[in-house]
Structure prediction request, 1240 residues.
Amino acid sequence: MKKSNKNLLLVIFLGIVVCLPFLLDDYWLHVAILTLFYVIMASSWNLLAGYTGQVSFAHAAFAAIGAYISGILSVQMSISPLITLLFGSVIAAIFGLGLGLLCLKMGGIYLSLTTLGFSEIVHIIIKNEYEITRGTMGLEVPNLLGFYSKTAYFYIMLLVTFIIIFFLAKLIKSDHGLKFKSVLNDELAASSIGIDTVKVRVIAFTISSAIAGFAGGLYGHYLLLITPEMSSLSQMFMILAMTIIGGMGTLSGPIAGAVFLQVLSEYIRIFGKFHLLLFGVISLLVIKFAPGGIVGLYRKITQSKTDPLKIETQSKYDY
Amino acid sequence: MFEVIKLNIFRGEIHVLWDVSLNVEEGEIVAVIGANGSGKSTLIETILGLLIPKSGNIKFFNKEISNQPSYEIARMGIAWVPEGRRIFKNMSVYENLEIGSYPRRARVNFAKNIKWIYELFPILKTRANKSAGLLSGGEQQMLAIGRALMLEPKLLLVDELSLGLAPKITQEVFEVIKELRRRKITVLLVEQNVDLALKNSDRCYILETGKVTLSGKSSELIKNKEIRKAYLGL
Amino acid sequence: MLKKRFFSIFISLVITMLLISSISIMAQEETIKIGVVGPRTGPAAATGVAFEEGIELALDYINTTKGGILGKKVEVIFEDTGGVPEKAASAIEKLITRDKVSIVVGESHSSCALAEIEIANRYEVPFIIAEAWVDEVTSKGYKWIFRAGPCNSGVVDNIIQWIVAEDFKKIMIVAENTDWGLGIKKLSEEGLQKEGIPYNSIITAVESQEYYTELNKIIDYAPDLILAYIYGFGVHDFIAQANEVGLSPANALILEGAGPPSLWPEFWENVGEAGELECFVSAMHSKVELTEVAKRFREDYAKKFNREPTDYKSRSIYNVLLIAADAIERAGSADGEEIVKALEETELEVASGVVKFGLEPGTVKYHQWQPPMLIIQWQNREQVVVFPKEAATGELKRGK
Amino acid sequence: MSSLFVNIFNGIVIGTIYALSALGISLILGAMNVMNFAHGEFYIFGAYFSYFFSRSLGFSPLIAILLSLGLIFWIGFLVEKTLIHSTYGNLMDSLIITFILSIVLQNIALIIFGPYPKKPPSWIIGSINVLDLFYYSSQRLITFIVAVLLLILFFIVMNKTWFGKIVRAISADREVASLMGINCDKVNSFSFGFGVALAGVAGAIISPIFGVTPMGGVGIGLTSVVVVVLGGMGSFKGCVIGGLLLGIIENIGVAYISSGYRNIFGFIILILILLFRPSGLFGTTIK
Prediction:
């Protein structure tokens, strides 16, 4: 396809996305807004897991931190959510930075376990400090705009999603992005060519925490209710499943995964009991048979002709 | 009995071994020497079935083994004394030797073999119930050799025996290799220490950047001026 | 390169959005749609099963026996909340905006109900809550929200009256850390304080299965009655362990404040002999029926499922569906305003009594109908109603 | 005062169960370099099977436990063959796969066994007066004794049998072990089966006390991971001591701080350990 054709199509698609509120009814607009939230969450988690190889289990917890900080500030201090949202994001970033500095030098499994512990601690504290967080009852928070409009919210989410994805794309293309990738591929090699792997990881971790915190705040001020469920492991599972099904380590993967799973879960609503099971099974199948996810499959189909199979000396054991 | 024929190995995109061929006859001690990065460890890993060759054959008693998994290769009678010893530190000395005799063929002769190992390395007998991680470097090397010998090997691959050992201890350990020659155990010695390797082997191959550049009787090679200059600094 | 990435991003986004919009246009059917919200998954999925049974019986009655309402069949759409407020909010949003239901009923989680009433109120769709007890549901005074089921303060009133009548001396409150548990604990404390009865309270984690530490604190306090506000299987463990440490029923009785867990089929399997003399709050008794509808419900239930109803939540949902159908019929249309007006004038016999919603604005009684609650004690594995006195089938038995 | 005793004693009893389950994780981690996140789900399936065999089919508790033990072993064996096998050497992949597996197994349990709690019959009823200080359930005491016996059995298997020795050798150095003629892949399937069977048997023997629910494995799974880190990855002795320690800390913590925070103590310990002594009490760090 020629470049000009692509640009034209791009403009058309952009136009359609922008027009979505006029094409969808209220309910599907609601689904679209939630989808955008998951797009942000999965994309920013992917920055960690897909690009620097750190499987963090605290991403949902960071979103919850952002949401609760923003929610509590806006309820108790009556500050506009537009300002508290930023506070939430900053606090999530600070937590991310702290956690990153504390455990990233160990990396690998230790990072996963520490983030898991952190996530559970956040979850338990939110549930138990009901005087501040209202526990499982959920915290009612004001609307971001002061009035309720799904269309307006959709555009805000869309704008934020585009900015974040654009930022992530730039980041991945930049020197930093190359550093991320080299950290993922070979830590030893990365450090031998002078990349401070710890610093790179801490940067990635902080950025993704900040994004999660911001997204969490937006989500909370949209639903008008924040509950501890936001920081639960099943929420984390959704983010993880979306990234994996879409394709880890690619920019479009998490987006495709989030959209696919959100829409799928609407279609299988009648099988409410089974949808987590189904997502789990799909994820396992994807890992087993199509490790590249949706994006990987797409690339395989479109590029299979040009890419001859290479047979190389391989290691039977990876370690 | 043991042949490597025109072996080509890639690691990722990098061509590491180029048409490497060598052979070892029964009862011989053959050394492969080369500097760091010459492809020695790649050669060992391929023989042990850890890497799949792009082309070439490895034959052991005329049987192709390059497509066999590691444990089958071990069961056929190729034992390995790894570089850096790599003993099972969380287990006792005795247990290490037990694991060495895991293949059924060797297990039936366990009592006989362990007696022999204890004769060879009396120190291992006195430390039998001690955790292997607590042994000194030399003792660990002895344990690594003992463990490999428990397998009743037909071919013993010895990888960088001298690495990280005091010269005196290295000498002691090489005495054992000589003892093996008397016992008619075939040994393939991969060494960085050229002097030691040449003095303790029958024949020798020299590996440089993935190619065999020179081979011959050790007793002759040791007199070779080029080698003396390049490797022994004389 | 970057553009290429964006290109594929847009494709994936847009194609799915298009898919969404094409599906959203659905054929309209000639039925009256009633939405039900409740947990079908998650820790309280048991309630979902009870709801399903109740819905089936109610639909059989409304559509088959009565032949529908306003000449149309009633269709129920049951959305899962998973017991999670966000999911609950999504579920009711879907029922209202996509399925275009005339009225929503159901719910058994207070936290979910609180999220749902905001949305029902925003979209101005009537919503009758069956089993979410937290007071705020009605005390918020939302025009569109009704509750035909117990509220915490109503249940607590009952319990306090019973405590006074039976002359308990020292009370221990054990509450799980949920909205319901904390809410009912606070109300109980206030009630006991008013009556001047000494009490103490402990909060436990909602997923807990281990109560030895709590029980030892209770032993140190030496109460003669324990109010156990724990929902779900946790209360089985609590009862069994209280017996193991020699607390109940020998030294103190336990009143389980929720009800269904003491009636679940697994109750006796889980608690063993420790269940003897346990008391619980319930809107339903295995033998005593308050109304004709209750008899009909029991017979239909036994016919349909070949066993006795155990979880009274199947009856709660049955009740609210009858109330909803009755209101729509009297309203003469599916119009929200009309239905609310009809609901406010409801006077209908259901399985737990005659429904009449309170109309005092600004109080918990606004749009609230509290079914009579019984306090029942297990005596030799038989349910004995011990309170209120007018419905009692036996005397309260104490441990010693 | 008596409540302090009962808390510590109870902590020890629960701690042995933690230890038993954690040994399974430790075994799998050591032998295969796989962090099994779905461990808690094997624990609940162990409990469910023993419930099924004893309640529904009427077997005696001992037979029910043995049957469920065998069943869990083979399920673990198959799971290893189909799912875990491809992740060798990649700890992150195994983490992700087993995390997803845990969600899948929870939902399978929900569909098969329903949301209600299931409790196999007690082996013994009543309680015992301990030293005139407190009453303690006989069932718990028996469970404790069985758990201790199982722990002893585990150490005998690991130290005296070929299987145990091979697993330990593989944990120390997989490559060398395979060059001693050990077929590591085969051993892996067995060790995974054996490891999850430990969780299964822990679930089976504790279920008459606590009952079992589809989500009931999450807590014990996470707790087992905490115990493994606390004791030191790769150290079996560490698992036992870590399990007992965590059991006692939790019970004391609940008694003197707040029971809502029962599960938080483990995670705080986890983070502290990872920060100040990543090797745990007795272990070594892993790659």
User: Anything to note?
Assistant: The domain at 28-150+290-369 of chain C is CATH 3.40.50.2300 (Rossmann fold). The longest strand of chain C covers residues 31-38.
